[in-house]
Design brief:
about 20% helix; single chain
Length: about 80
């Protein structure tokens, strides 16, 4: 999965973001949802499949970012 950003109106929904970016339900992590990043700019983030992230037009309002898994370093205490 990758994180992507999109510019939308305030109080936007995941469905609106999916329509704007041309994504299907299978390509989006609905559990992650749509996260407001910058209210002043109307910038939201969502997680999408790798191939879907490559198709998204940057003019939609943002970019595509890696989403590495965060794990503890070393053995558990």
């Amino acid at each position: 999965m990758r994180l992507v950003t999109v510019r939308l109106q305030s109080q936007a929904t995941l469905a609106q973001a999916m329509r704007r970016l041309g994504l299907t339900e299978e390509e989006v992590d609905s559990g992650y949802g749509l996260v407001l990043i910058d209210p002043g700019q109307g910038l939201y983030g969502l997680r999408v499949a790798e191939d879907a992230a490559r198709r998204i037009d940057p003019a939609a309002g943002g970019g595509s970012y890696s989403d590495p898994r965060i794990e503890p370093f070393g053995p558990p205490d």
